[in-house]
Design goal:
Elements lengths: L1 H21 L4 E5 L3 H13 L6 E5 L1 H9 L6 E3 L3 H9 L9 E6 L1 E6 L14 H5 L5 E4 L5 H12 L3 H4 L3 E4 L2 H9 L5 E5 H6 L3 E6 L8 E7 L7 H10 L2 H9 L3 E2 L2
Parallel strand pairs: 1-2, 1-3, 6-7, 6-8
Antiparallel strand pairs: 3-10, 4-10, 4-11, 5-8, 5-9
Helix pairs in contact: 3-4
Length: about 260
């Protein structure tokens, strides 16, 4: 009798916990530059009665490799097309869901107490601005999207070879921003949205659109999230009309 009672209790516990698991919010892997906007969108989604999404932020490269290694992400939001291509080529996303709904700008920032406007043109001498020991903080161009955009812009200006040894290479865009906020680097190349949320830096110049490929953010449902109704619902929410005002409030541009 005791054994039957124990089995019944275990079965009841399974029935009680199964709905809770089914109602868990989706796990979202998102580029670090999306932190503030995604937190706001996650709160808005939860306010509608949905389970709150679990948000994980890092460099797109780190997130893509984690997904490749089996990390339990339901949605992936990259800061460039290349890292979404990386997971797509490995059949880790639902191809039909891939969309690039938002964009960003690439800017030069300086500490707020030392910010002077810089006109960013082909003949702008950034090396002279840095002085003998100054460095420019940005993401590591080897794997961080903002660093790749920075490399493209500096190459367009004809200054990559000169500036490359003077880069302070950060693991993600928020880390690069922090180096400028702390005064550890006199300048940084970051996204316009990251500069906008910082009280410690000011935008001193915006890189011309012609200097780099457009900064776009591809989103997709992963194979893991394909049959997760909450993941699909949240994906529709963040890529739909209800999210547009939030993206714009945090400085992102909207795809036409």
């Amino acid at each position: 009798m005791f054994r039957r009672a124990l089995l019944a209790a275990i079965a009841a516990l399974g029935l009680a916990t199964a709905p809770a698991r089914a109602q868990e919010g989706p796990t979202v892997f998102a580029a670090a530059s999306l932190t503030d906007a995604m937190r706001a969108l996650g709160q808005a989604w939860a306010a509608q009665g949905h389970p709150a999404p679990r948000l994980s932020f890092a460099a797109s490269s780190a997130l893509a490799r984690q997904i490749e290694q089996g990390a339990p992400a339901d949605l992936f939001m990259s800061a460039d097309e290349a890292w979404m291509n990386y997971v797509q080529e490995r059949n880790l996303i639902v191809n039909a869901t891939r969309i690039s709904p938002i964009g960003n700008s690439l800017v030069l920032v300086a500490p707020a107490n030392a910010a002077r406007p810089v006109t960013l043109e082909r003949d702008t001498n950034l090396l002279a601005l840095l002085g003998p020991n100054g460095r420019i903080a940005t993401g590591d161009p080897a794997h961080v999207p903002v660093g790749r955009y920075a490399q493209a812009a500096l190459t367009w200006m004809g200054q990559w070879d000169a500036i490359s040894p003077r880069l302070a290479r950060a693991d993600n865009v928020r880390s690069a921003l922090l180096l400028v906020e702390r005064g550890e680097a006199p300048y940084g190349i970051v996204y316009g949205t990251d500069a906008a949320i910082s009280q410690g830096v000011r935008v001193v110049g915006t890189f011309p659109a012609a200097s780099h490929t457009p900064v776009t953010y591809p989103f997709a449902v992963t194979r893991r999230g394909e049959n997760n109704a909450e993941a699909r619902g949240f994906f529709t929410f963040i890529t739909g009309a209800d999210a547009r005002a939030t993206w714009q409030r945090f400085g992102f541009s909207l795809a036409q």
